[in-house]
Amino acid sequence: MSKDLYIILGVPGSGKTTQAFHLAQYLKLDNLSWGTIYRNPSLAEKYPKEFKTIKSKKASDKDRSYAISNIIEKEVEQLSETSNGFIIDGYPRRLTEAKRLIRITKKGNYNIRGIIIINPSLETSHKRLKERLICKRCGNYYSEENPPLPGGFCKDDSQKLNKAYISPETLKDEFYIYRKEIAQSIRYLQKYTDVCFDVSGDDDETIIFSNILLKLRDRKQRDSKIFSRRSKAKLETKFGVFDLIAYQSEIDYSYHLALVKGDVKRGNGILIRIHSSCVTGDIFASERCDCGDQLHNSLKLIHENRKGVLIYLFQEGRGINIINKVKAYELQRKGLDTVEANERIGFPAEMREYSMVKDILDDLHIKSIKLMTNNPDKIYKLTDLGIIVEESVSIEVQPGKHNKKYLYTKRAKMKHKLCLV
Ligand SMILES: [Zn+2]
Ligand SMILES: [Zn+2]
Question: Which of 14, 36, 123, 305 gives 20 to 30 Å between its CA and that of 91?
Answer without folding.
Answer: 123
